[in-house]
Design goal:
The protein is of the alpha+beta class. The chain contains 5 helices and 7 strands. The protein is elongated.
Length: 159
């Protein structure tokens, strides 16, 4: 079980980072042969990223919904994320090509992503009586006191 940090904490960084949301949506449940390979393709990618922290992946969390998974990922930079996505040595590019060959635009399964470049002072967070998660897990936690006590103050002052 993860350690609970009693009290109020915040996660901060004086460096920019990237938040990347990626997911798939099962549009036709009966098209198992279409969406199951898409769902299974994420495992090798995540394994590669956790085994190779030099690629810039800081961590992430997977959420499971009725129509498919969504993953919240944290990256050191957009350049690192893009390099992984385009690398012939990493599993993403071949999975992407397979998706377009086997699913294309037939509507059986959808994929999506959103990328956010986050600059110091451009975000805020608070964790109360929680284990490390989200930004707290990848950036670490500090007590949410002083200039980190209120949301407005956390948003204006990264460190």
């Amino acid at each position: 079980m993860n350690e609970i940090y009693n009290g109020r904490y915040s996660a901060v960084s004086d460096e920019p980072f990237v938040v990347f949301l990626i997911g798939m949506r099962i549009n036709k449940f009966w098209a198992l042969r279409k969406w199951l390979p898409v769902m299974q393709a994420m495992g090798p990618m995540i394994t590669t990223l956790y085994k190779n922290p030099q690629k810039g992946f800081l961590g992430g969390r997977t959420l499971i919904g009725l129509r498919g998974p969504t993953m919240i990922q944290y990256w050191r930079s957009f350049e690192d994320l893009e390099k992984f996505a385009r690398s012939q040595e990493d599993p993403h590019l071949s999975a992407w090509k397979h998706f377009y060959q086997s699913v294309g635009t037939d509507g059986s399964v959808g994929i999506w992503h959103e990328t956010y470049q986050i600059n110091p002072g451009g975000y805020e967070n608070v964790y109360v009586n929680m284990p490390k998660q989200g930004l707290g897990e990848v950036l670490g936690l500090i007590p949410a006191t002083g200039r980190h006590q209120k949301a407005r103050e956390r948003l204006a002052y990264p460190l």
